[in-house]
Specification:
This protein has helices spanning 5-10, 56-76; strands spanning 18-21, 25-29, 37-43, 84-87, 103-107. It is built from two helices and five strands. It has one domain: HIT-like (HIT family, subunit A), CATH 3.30.428.10. The radius of gyration is 14 Å and the shape is globular. Helix content is 23%, strand content 22%. Strand 2 and strand 3 (37-43) form a beta hairpin.
Length: 116
Amino acid sequence: MGETIFAKIIRKEIPADIVFENEKVLAFKDIKPQAPVHVLIIPKDTGIPTVSDLSSSKHSELLGAMIDAANQIAKDFGVSEKGFRLVMNCGADAGQEVYHLHMHLFGGRKMNWPPG
């Protein structure tokens, strides 16, 4: 898939409003937020384009780190008590625009169902 904007954000080559970082993941505010709280949580491993490229045997620790980051971010932004939504799009028909695995955290407003 080649180089993505997320890889450049991980390397700090382009600016982002980073709200969380550890050795496995980086999280930053979305530049086109769809909710009062809209954060992207990405693995620092740049070799995983989509959810379809994951396997439980190889990526369970990384997925756990992404969920742990989401829970911490939700607490930090004050949305963990009322609720938040996590979304991972996979492929063009699902709305994936950047082919680097990522999770959206939405919060701060009532979410509708079904989404989209």
